[in-house]
Input
Amino acid sequence: MNIQLNQISKNEALVKINIQSVDYQSKVDGKIKDYSKKANIKGFRPGKVPLGVIKKMYGKAILADEINHMVSHKVIDYIKENNIQILGEPMPNLDKVAHLDWDTTSDFEFEYNIGIATDFSLAVDEKFKVDTYTIKVDKKLMDETVENIRKQFGEMTNPEVSDEGDSLYGHVLIDGEKAESGSFLDMEEVEKKSKKNFAGKKKGDIVEFDPSKVFNLPTAKERFLGAHKELKGKIKFEVEKVNRVLPAEIDQALFDKTFGKDLVKTETEFLDKIRTTLSDNYKRETDSYTDLKIRDKFLEKTKIDLPDAFLKRWLERSQENQLTKEEIEKDYPMYVNDLKWSMIKNKIAKDHKIKAEHEEVVADAKKMIRAQFGSMGLSEQMEANIDAFADNYLKAEEGKNYMKLHEKVFNDKIFTFIRENITIKSKEVTLDEYKEKA
Output
């Protein structure tokens, strides 16, 4: 067997394999013998089918299968032995395969196109700068959060007349008749200038308005209209009930409902706990934003040459019957960014010897399980069996859970390394400012 690499360009090559009968004949003969022992053919006793009959009936298929298996493995072995960093997968020349003469030919030639990842440089140091944000837990945010908690655990009442902070239950009128299902109109989802139109309403009142101009989000409008979301322009809504939440008192009962029994015992502790929880939650959000900025900056600054024509052909073949050429062309920039980022991460990992160890994956699985069970108040009961729980989770889905968590641990370590070595400039902003800027 002879194999050679012909460079087409700096990031694409052609692998040629020449295979002779001496390379495959003994394996093909062995397969034919095995098949004769198992074959069940009319007119012959099981296991006693002559080799000539098997060869005549199945020889060509056995030959093609054995050679294709041998050649595909040889290509992969050649790539590994020569440390060629490929992109996508080797693509066989299907036209050449289609014209092979399996009946009379004993020497065969196969071709595989491969995309090659060319080397590139990048630096992870203080000269690499990223701008990001941290969210300030200010008085406005604290007041809104406390008010939301008080409403969450407040008492529902049904006053006669509505106010701007209430919600209304009723039915949309279609051709003067009530819609089959009722609708809730929450004043919190109504544009500020429209709130006054729904205040002072009582049972039996009919309000006429255009949902597309009243609700502050399209999802709120769709939720209100329900099965009648196709309605356009002004609609009529008949009020049947006014709902009002009386905020809960700031007392021990509220502390217990919010954080668990006796974990908070004073209003000061309650506010401190809220502040800490908000800070932690928004830190996770801004960390994700920072990671995205880091990724975008690396993609912007790192020059990587890719065999675009090869990759598009490979995508077209590998996604046959799933994606059209037009869809591949449209999504190709996103695919390229994902591929480049994967190459960048792998280079950083190789240059700085970063990898996800098995023990770290197991530890992350335990951490995830503790968080899930802990929120249900079962942490003490399950702690004794945490090893078994983690093992079962990681083996589930035919090992896919393990691979997903392995990738997560790897990504976490890459981002931790990057953050520790680059310059990150963080500007403190309010939550409203963050929503506008991020």
The longest strand covers residues 235-246. The chain is about 50% helix and 20% strand. The CA atoms of residues 121 and 376 lie 48 Å apart. Residues 155-246 form a domain with the Chitinase A; domain 3 fold (CATH 3.10.50).
